[in-house]
Specification:
The chain is an all-alpha fold and 78 residues long. The chain has a domain at 21-71. It is built from 3 helices and no strands. The chain has helices at 22-39, 47-56, 59-71. Helix 1 runs antiparallel to helix 2 (47-56). The protein is globular. The termini are far apart. Belongs to the cytochrome c oxidase subunit 6B (TC 3.D.4.8) family. Keywords: Disulfide bond, Mitochondrion.
Length: 78
């Protein structure tokens, strides 16, 4: 018998009622990094935000934002 794989995505968020999820993606990315800054890199409390932004954001965007954070040019409030 094969193991079942359970797929999940970020839950609906009333702050983002439209189908365009760009802002939702960006907000979840910022929330994750704010959480890790406040609670530490190894905090399990931040993992849900990581799951959300990874489900919503294209990998290319995340790669670019990570590079921008490393160089100090990230446009968002962290």
């Amino acid at each position: 018998m094969e193991d079942e794989i359970e797929l999940k995505t970020a839950p609906a968020d009333f702050r983002f009622p439209t189908t365009n999820q760009t802002r939702h993606c960006f907000t979840r990315y910022i929330e994750f990094h704010r959480c890790t800054s406040a609670k530490g890199e190894d905090s399990n409390e931040c993992e849900r935000f990581a799951k959300y932004y990874r489900a919503l954001c294209p990998g290319e965007w995340v790669d670019k934002w990570n590079e921008q954070r490393e160089t100090g040019t990230f446009p968002g409030p962290l």
